[in-house]
Amino acid sequence: MSPDDLPVVLLVDDEVRSQDAMRRTLDEDFRILTASSADEAREWLTRQEVAVILCDQRMPGQMGVDFLKEVRERWPDTVRIVISGYTDSEDIITGINEAGIYQYILKPWVPDHLLATVRTAVEARTLQQGLSRLELELRTGAPLLKARRAQRLNEAQAVFGFERIIRAPGSPMEGVCAMAARLARYDLPVLVLGESGTGKELLARAIHYASPRQSGPFVMENCAAIPDTLLESELFGHKRGAFTGAYEDHIGLFQRAHGGTVFLDEIGETSPAFQVKLLRVLQEGELRPVGSTRAVPVDVRVLAATHRTLEDEVKAGRFREDLYYRIAGTTLHMPALRERADDIAVIAQHVLRHVAQELGRPEVHFTPEALSCLSAYAWPGNIRELRNEIARAVALSDDVALRPQAFSPRLRCGEAASLAKPSAPELASLPRKGTLAERLDAVEAMVLREVLARHQGNKTRAAAELDLSRVGLRAKMQRFGLDEA
Ligand SMILES: Nc1ncnc2c1ncn2[C@@H]1O[C@H](COP(=O)(O)OP(=O)(O)OP(=O)(O)O)[C@@H](O)[C@H]1O
C-alpha cells in the first residue's frame, strides 16, 4: 500500500511540539495532516477525505469540542477524538453528546494508547461504512456487496497480514509466522511473549486477518496504559451513572469486537482484581458492563501479549493461575532482534524506504558500513528502537548516503572499537611470549620508558601525565629496572 492509500488522520493542535509528538507516533500507519487552528482544519476537511480527526480541547478562540460539533454536522464520516488535560474534562463531558465524540484521550497521552485508539477508530469507521453500504445495497438490491467486502478484506490483509512482518530468509521469525498462521485457523486464545518492540502487536493483527474472524473487527487495548478501574470500563463498558462522570452508557471494547478479535497487550500489568473479572468474561462468554445487572453475550477471540515471563508472575502470585491457563493455551515467543541479526538489515531497509518517503527524501540510502553498524548493535528496544534510530538519522543528516556517523554514539561503539584496533607497528611492538601478566608488565615498562623519554627523565611531569604519584612512579621504575638508566 503506498503512503497515499493510508487512512488520513488530521491533527489539530496549535502547539507544534505536541503536533510533532503525535505525528511521530502515528505516521507509520496513517497519512498525517496537521492544522494549528479550526480554520486550517476546515480547509483540509473540505479538500480531503479525513478518516479521523484528533483535536486538542484548547485551541485559540474556540474549544475543541465546539469545533467537533461542526465537524459532526458537515463531515459526519470523520471519527472525532478529543485530546484534553484533566482540567478540561467537565467542558468535554458537556460537549460530548453534541459532538458525537468517539473517544477522549487524557494528557499526558501514552504513545501506544494513542496509536491503538486511532487504529480502533479507523477500524470502527471502516466497519460503519461497510454497514452503511450494506444497508444501501440491501435496499437497492446491489449485487456487488460480496465483491466489495472481499476487496476491503484484501486491503486490510495487505496492510496487516504476515507479509507485513519483514524478515530475512531463514530467520527464526519464519517459524513463528508459520506457527501463528496455523494457529490463526482455530478459535483458540494465543499468548504472545517477547520483549517490548519485537512486533507482538503486528503478529496479533496478522493472526486476526488470517483467521475465520478476519472480516470481524480487531480491537486492541494496552492494559498498561490505563488504570485498573478505567480498564474495566474500557473493556466491558459502563452504564450511565455507574460512577462520577459516567454521563452516558458506554459500549466496551469487547462488545465492539463482537464477531472478531480482542488483543490485550501487556496483560501481565493487570491487577489480580481485574484478572478475576476478565476470567469470568472468558469463561462465561458474557460480560456485565460496570453498573449494569444485565449480562451481554459476547463472541470474541482473545489474543494477549506481555513482555514478562508470565509463569514467573504466576509463581510470584502477581498473575492468577486460572487466567494464565485460560489465555496461555498456545504460546508464541517473539525472538528479540539481537537473536535474529539477519533480520536487522532487511527491516532497516524497509523502514528507511518508508521514513525517507515520509520525509520527502526518497533517495536516501545506507552505506554498507552503516548497515554493518546497525547489524552489530544489540537493539535492547528492538524494532521500535531501530525505527526511531533510522528516523533520527534521516532527519539529522543532509547526506543522501547514511553513514555510521549519522547514528547515535551508542551505536557507533562497533565503529569506535574498529578504530581502536592496534595498527601494524603497534602490533609489531606487542610482546609475543609469556603469560598475560608477563606481557602486560612488558607493555607497562614500554609505556613508562616512552613517557620518561618524552619528559627527558622528569619524574614529576611523567607521573602527572600517567596520573601516578612520584613515589608510585619511582616504585614502578624500580620494578622494571628503569631507575638504573
Ligand atoms: N518484522 C517487522 N517488520 C517491520 N516492522 C516491524 C516488525 N516488527 C515490528 N515492527 C514495527 O515495530 C514497532 C513495534 O512493534 P509492535 O508494537 O508490534 O511491538 P510490541 O512487541 O507489540 O511492542 P510492545 O510490547 O511495546 O507493545 C511497530 O511500529 C511495528 O510496526
TrEMBL record:
PROSITE patterns listed in its UniProt record: RESPONSE_REGULATORY, SIGMA54_INTERACT_1, SIGMA54_INTERACT_2, SIGMA54_INTERACT_3, SIGMA54_INTERACT_4
Q: Which domain of life is it from?
A: Bacteria
Keyword Phosphoprotein assigned to the entry: answer is yes
User: Which residues carry the post-translational modification 4-aspartylphosphate, per the record?
Assistant: 56
Q: Does the keyword ATP-binding apply?
A: yes
CDD domains noted in UniProt = AAA
Look up and give the organism this protein is from: Ideonella paludis
Where is each Response regulatory domain found?
Answer: 8-122
Name the UniProt record assigns to this protein: Sigma-54-dependent Fis family transcriptional regulator
Q: Which residues form the Sigma-54 factor interaction domain?
A: 166-395
Transmembrane regions: none
Gene3D superfamilies according to UniProt: 1.10.8.60, 3.40.50.2300, Homeodomain-like (1.10.10.60), P-loop containing nucleotide triphosphate hydrolases (3.40.50.300)
SMART domains the UniProt entry points to: AAA, REC
Keyword list (alphabetical) reads:
ATP-binding, DNA-binding, Nucleotide-binding, Phosphoprotein, Transcription, Transcription regulation
